[in-house]
């Protein structure tokens, strides 16, 4: 049971709660009335400062009672007549149907063009770029001590042919005898590879009965490597007869009258055109050495590189020249092989005509090339810029495919052009230099046989030859010691020099010599008598190789 005191306290609490709630309601009502009165007072003050609006006389037309049948509400505060909206929509639909366009608004009138804005100020010059990293070329090494006089220019005297696959990893084979072979590669890094020793196959190689370990044959001699300009040969002293002492007479006779009286005939010097003469050096190619990589071309995969075969100074002997592509009017000159390796050009020669093919040469300070699309040869003097043009043969092959604006050749059928020289496109003339001077190799337009000519420096043709070899059966050729040699393939890694023809004896030399294309893309092959090396351009790589020759008369001549 709850006591009376507790119940009394509870009632008292309820009364206090009810009284508080009633007080809150009264307070809220008072505040609401106060706010309403304050707002009314504020509206009255604002209305005193508002100008009275202009009253417009409305149409006295009686509006229908139901506004929904007469007006349309667009948006929140926009009401337009329904007939106006219908009329506008019908016009829009009619315009769109006539113009076959989507529902778009009426095009407005074209506005007048605005004034051209002022030219803005030039922008700030950008910051200079960061200098690129230095290449991998090292510094010049110290000059070593002079070596003792050698007997050949091969790395190893007892090695006649070295099969060195380049590029690729070192090849090690287990054979009867293994010898290290140094191979010079780009950036002047020396790599040692172990390759099997293999004697030269039958051909121009060692005589029968020779085996590894035996002394070199007595008939074989290798060319020395010349690092300087070869001095001109000293002229032989003419042998003169002793003077004839004649008893003086009273007659005062001249020399001609005295010769006529004594019946003495003096031979007159030859004043006719140049003749072929004799072979200044008789030798036969026996083998080739190891390819040496001098540099990489900074241009395309097709081209040629040259060294002057008859320089007139030490500076000219150090210079190198490079051409790019199958036809180009530009000859690039480098100060020396170091600049060639670093790809630093010295001069660009822009000749007057388009030089066709990759068989051009530099000889005695002049650039010799074939004028594209003609039967003419051109000699361009590098120092003076003077050039001489002469026709080689009116019946020579020279018509090529058309050229595109990007300086490339169009694709054409064999019937639309003349036959190419070698198994290589867009090549018609190949110059060659040996110990006897300047030569030229070309093809006939009517026949596919190889043609050759001996030239004077002024492009005078001394003599001509027709060699019964198909022009497209060989990949390239060169002339050394008056003998023409033909290479079988320019794309096989291992191939042979299969053709040899003595131009002075007009006889074919049997046999073959092994040849290696390290990069399988040979486009130029020339012999340089200055250092007795073969220079060739192989898939953007500039290489050379030494040769082993036999200077004695070959055995086939004595038979």
Automatic annotation (TrEMBL):
Stored Pfam families: Collagen, OLF
Any one biological process term the GO annotation gives: negative regulation of synaptic transmission, cholinergic
Domain Olfactomedin-like intervals: 282-551
Swiss-Prot/TrEMBL keywords: Disulfide bond, Membrane, Repeat, Secreted, Transmembrane, Transmembrane helix
Principal place of residence: secreted
GO-annotated cellular components: extracellular space; postsynaptic membrane
Keyword Repeat: yes
Record's keyword annotation contains Transmembrane: yes
Region (Disordered): 103-125, 205-243
Compartments (UniProt record): Secreted
InterPro entries per UniProt: Collagen, Olfac-like_dom, Olfactomedin-like_domain
Segments traversing the membrane: 16-39
Top-rank taxon: Eukaryota
Protein name (database record): Olfactomedin-like domain-containing protein
Source organism of the structure: Caenorhabditis remanei
């Amino acid at each position: 049971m709850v006591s009376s005191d507790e119940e009394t306290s509870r009632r008292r609490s309820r009364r206090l709660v009810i009284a508080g709630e009633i007080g809150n309601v009264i307070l809220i009502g008072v505040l609401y009335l106060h706010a309403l009165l304050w707002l009314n007072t504020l509206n009255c003050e604002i209305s005193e400062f508002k100008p009275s609006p202009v009253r417009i006389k409305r149409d006295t037309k009686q509006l229908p009672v139901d506004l929904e049948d007469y007006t349309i509400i667009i948006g929140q505060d926009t009401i337009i007549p329904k007939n106006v909206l219908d009329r506008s929509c019908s016009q829009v639909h009619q315009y769109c149907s006539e113009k076959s366009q989507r529902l778009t608004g009426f095009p407005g009138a074209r506005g007048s063009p605005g004034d051209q804005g002022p030219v803005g100020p030039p922008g700030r010059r950008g910051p200079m770029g960061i200098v690129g990293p230095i290449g991998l070329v090292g510094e010049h090494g110290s000059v070593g001590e002079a070596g003792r006089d050698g007997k050949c220019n091969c790395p190893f005297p007892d090695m006649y042919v070295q099969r060195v696959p380049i590029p690729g990893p070192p090849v090690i084979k287990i054979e009867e005898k293994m010898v290290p072979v140094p191979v010079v590669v780009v950036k002047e890094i020396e790599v040692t590879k172990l390759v099997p020793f293999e004697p030269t196959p039958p051909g121009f190689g060692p005589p029968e009965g020779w085996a590894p370990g035996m002394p070199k044959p007595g008939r074989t001699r290798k060319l020395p490597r010349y690092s300087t300009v070869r001095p001109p040969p000293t002229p032989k002293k003419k042998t003169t007869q002793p003077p004839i002492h004649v008893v003086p007479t009273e007659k005062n006779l001249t020399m001609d009258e005295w010769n006529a009286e004594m019946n003495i005939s003096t031979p007159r010097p030859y004043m006719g055109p140049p003749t072929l003469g004799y072979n200044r050096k008789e030798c036969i190619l026996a083998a080739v050495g190891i390819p040496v990589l001098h540099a990489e071309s900074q241009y395309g995969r097709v081209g040629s590189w040259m060294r002057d075969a008859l320089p007139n100074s030490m500076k000219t002997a150090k210079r190198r020249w490079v051409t790019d592509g199958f036809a180009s009017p530009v000859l690039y000159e480098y100060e020396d092989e170091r600049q060639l390796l670093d790809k630093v050009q010295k001069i660009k020669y822009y000749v007057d005509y388009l030089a066709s093919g990759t068989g051009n040469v530099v000889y005695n300070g002049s650039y010799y090339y074939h004028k594209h699309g003609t039967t003419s040869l051109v000699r361009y003097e590098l120092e003076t810029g003077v050039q001489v043009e002469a026709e080689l043969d009116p019946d020579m092959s020279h018509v090529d495919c058309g050229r595109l604006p990007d300086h490339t050749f169009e694709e054409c059928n064999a019937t639309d052009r003349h036959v190419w020289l070698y198994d290589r496109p867009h090549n018609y003339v190949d110059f060659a230099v040996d110990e006897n001077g300047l030569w030229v190799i070309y093809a006939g337009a009517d026949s596919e046989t190889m043609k050759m000519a001996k030239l004077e420096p002024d492009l005078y043709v001394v003599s001509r030859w027709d060699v019964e070899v198909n022009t497209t059966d060989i990949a390239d050729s060169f002339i050394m010691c008056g003998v023409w040699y033909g290479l079988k393939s320019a794309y096989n890694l291992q191939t042979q020099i299969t053709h040899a023809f003595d131009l002075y004896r007009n006889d074919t030399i049997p046999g073959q010599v092994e040849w290696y294309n390290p990069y399988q893309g040979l486009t130029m092959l020339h012999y340089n008598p200055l250092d007795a090396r073969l220079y060739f351009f192989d898939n953007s790589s500039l290489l050379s190789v030494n040769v082993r020759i036999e200077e004695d008369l070959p055995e086939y001549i004595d038979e």
